[in-house]
Write a structure and sequence with these properties.
alpha/beta; Rossmann fold; Leucine-rich repeat, LRR (right-handed beta-alpha superhelix); 3 domains; 11-stranded parallel beta sheet; 5-stranded parallel beta sheet; 21 strands; 16% strand; globular; ADP binding; repeat
Length: 673
């Protein structure tokens, strides 16, 4: 069987059948359009996206509201975990509806200092809807053995289930472990029997904490203490909403809004996540009139969403400007529990046109603002931002991921491949989980395909319905993409704007010349593919290409002589390409470059064939530059010809590696290690 990771076009079949869901979504979408068209009736007020003084303040509060009303539950769980019981194994199951805070409580318990000190090992496994025994076993082994990646003959991906269970048994034997199984759906004991028997080899006092929406899952576990996580009371919901909504407001303003705020918070149906999201929505709508329109919104009356958390989410989602809606939805093409990297996601958004098409604009800055705004609106979980405000990571709440998939129903498919490359993916809307049948013309609407591929398996050689794909991403899997598969995809999916094979040695060989067929391509990420020795000249025909990442392509010996034809290239990376000779002379024509990492150039003299220091002369849009310098000395004439004084956007020049460092003073710039 080929499909398991369901970020396919929405695994919300637990709520309604797939075909019904598509129909309902269309109905809801049409109704939302009607509501939103009359801005005076719904959209409240027109406002600039980032003109909110409360944005930074609210981000600092993110996460705190999740513990309101849950201190007693958390304390009970911690006490049970730390009890001096001699039982070999005990399970605590947290059961509750989506968005009620199960994962949040589990995280609080998992990071509790007493819990950390009490157990030899702590392991967190996100199980999700499609149960995969091998995935659970591998995650536990890696957690206990403190290894992120197994290579070669020790690769766990080649192990059958029996061997994995045996390895897991040896790993946990005699160790007091704490295992969190988050978001469990599978309630068939046959799926769990092998794992449960293996868990018993841990030391006395080992514990399992399980979160699920289903009582049948909790009842299946042996020696299980079940905690039914009840919805928050109206008063507790109001505490969450008011903490978010009143951030930065004066006492009188809060008093004037309190009565209507409580009526809005009563619509949360006890969900702390809904309360948090509604609070964030209210925080950015300043007046009583705006709050009244939220209270009276027709979205609350939509039949399908009225019984679910989605009503609150739809309100906040519909309040987003259109570009942010597209950016948020795109997050659904990655699997649950995925750790999003802000820089990578921004580059994806750019390639797909979600940040606009004006290259004179600082699209990276816009992307960072979008991420901060979505985080402030509580669309992201575990949001971390570095001190410079440039790099960010986050996850998504399970229910928020479900919601994003709900919105992405016709556009995104994700798969996890569990067999070899001689199979077929079918992007059919109605048969997306089978990956075998031919798609009738016009039936497939999927625009994005993301694949998780375990080591030892390959992306299928045929992808029916790939003609309409805009993005193709492989997020895990060594030797996952064969030359034949890459050739077939590049021949078929000619509307691709983004190809991301940037994981450890995802490509089995070289890039086929057929990549030159992808005339709309804007983004190519081949980083980490150590087997690539060169690039085909046809790649230089991609006039729309803006991003080319070749970092850590350790066998890359040269770049095509015609690389200067990529006149729209903005980002070019070749860090840690240790066999790379000098850049071709034609690279001096890449005058739109803003980021140039790891360029290999000759510094000691001019050369008719190799890129030299002076060839940086016209690259005046550069904002980031790191160089590998060839030669025994820096030629003063070449240094003057580079005209660093004209590169006013450049703050720092780094030596990536080489024998010398350029010392040259430029406006607000420095050159050094």
């Amino acid at each position: 069987m080929l499909g398991s990771y369901i970020t396919h076009c929405l695994h919300t079949a637990q709520v309604v059948r797939r075909d019904d869901l598509a129909f309902k979504l269309k109905e809801i979408s049409d109704r939302l359009d009607e509501i939103a068209n009359d801005r005076s009736e719904f959209r409240l007020i027109s406002r600039s996206l980032f003109q909110h003084s409360r944005l930074v303040e609210s981000t600092a509060l993110a996460g705190g509201s999740a513990i309101i009303g849950r201190d007693e539950v958390k304390g009970d769980i911690v006490s049970s975990l730390l009890s001096a019981s001699t039982e070999v194994l005990k399970t605590i199951s947290i059961v509750g509806m989506g968005g009620v805070g199960k994962t949040a409580i589990a995280q609080l318990v998992y990071h509790d200092e007493e819990v950390k000190q009490h157990f030899d090992n702590r392991i967190w496994v996100c199980v999700s809807e499609v149960f995969d025994e091998k995935k659970v076993a591998k995650t536990i082994i890696k957690g206990v053995e403190h290894v992120k990646r197994f290579k070669g003959a020790d690769s766990l991906d080649s192990f059958p289930l029996s061997a994995l269970l045996d390895r897991m048994c040896r790993s946990i034997h005699g160790k007091k472990f704490f295992l969190v199984l988050d978001d469990v759906w599978a309630d068939d004991m046959q799926h769990w029997e092998g794992l449960i028997q293996t868990f018993k080899h841990g030391a006395p006092g080992s514990r399992i904490l399980l979160t699920t929406r289903k009582d049948t899952v909790a009842n299946m576990m042996e020696d299980s203490h079940v905690i039914h996580l009840e919805p928050l009371s109206d008063e507790q919901c109001w505490m969450v909403v008011s903490r978010e909504a009143f951030s930065g407001r004066g006492v009188e303003e809060c008093r004037n809004l309190e009565d209507i705020g409580k009526r809005i918070s009563n619509k949360c149906q006890g969900s702390p996540l809904a309360a948090k999201i509604l609070g964030a929505l209210l925080r950015f709508d300043s007046g009583r009139k705006a709050w009244e329109k939220i209270l009276n919104s027709e979205i609350w009356e939509l039949d399908f969403v009225s019984k679910q958390l989605f009503a609150s989410l739809l309100l906040s989602y519909n309040d987003l400007p259109l570009p942010l809606r597209e950016c948020f939805k795109y997050c659904a093409v990655f699997p649950k529990d995925f750790v999003y990297d802000g820089e990578t996601i921004i580059y994806h958004w750019m390639a797909l046109g979600y940040l606009g098409l004006n290259n004179d604009e600082d699209l990276e800055l816009k992307g960072r603002e979008y991420i901060s705004y979505l985080a402030a609106c509580s669309f992201f979980q575990d949001f971390l931002l570095d001190t410079d405000g440039l790099k960010s990571t986050w996850k998504m709440y399970d229910i928020m991921h479900d919601f994003a998939q709900f919105l992405m129903i016709n556009d995104g498919i994700g798969i996890e491949v569990n067999q070899g490359g001689n199979s077929t993916i079918d992007l059919s809307l109605s048969r997306a989980r089978h990956f075998t049948a031919y798609i009738p013309e016009g039936h497939c609407r999927a625009r994005h395909l993301t694949a998780c591929i375990p080591e030892g398996h390959c992306l299928p050689s045929s992808i029916y319905g790939a003609e309409k794909l805009r993005s193709l991403t492989v997020i895990s899997g060594e030797n996952a993409v064969t030359n034949e598969t890459a050739r077939n995809i590049f021949n078929q999916a000619k509307r691709l704007r983004l190809v991301d094979f940037g994981c450890h040695n995802a490509l089995m060989g070289t890039i086929p010349k057929e990549i030159g067929n992808l005339i709309h391509l804007r983004h190519i990420n081949l980083s980490g593919n150590g087997k690539i020795k060169g690039l085909p000249g046809s790649l230089c025909k991609l006039n729309n290409l803006q991003y080319l990442n070749l970092d850590n392509c350790e066998s890359l010996g040269n770049l095509p002589n015609e690389i200067g034809n990529l006149i729209n290239l903005i980002y070019l990376r070749t860090l840690h390409c240790y066999k790379l000779a000098c850049y071709p002379k034609s690279a001096r024509r890449l005058t739109n470059l803003r980021q140039l990492r790891g360029i290999v150039l000759r510094a000691d003299r001019n050369d008719p064939n190799e890129f030299t220091l002076g060839d940086l002369e016209n690259l005046n849009h550069l904002r980031e530059l790191s160089m590998v310098l060839k030669g025994n000395a820096v030629n003063d004439r070449e240094l003057r010809r580079a005209k660093f004084e004209n590169k006013t956007h450049l703050k720092e020049i780094k030596r990536a590696r080489g024998m010398m460092t350029v010392h040259y003073e430029v406006k607000a710039s420095s050159v050094g290690e």
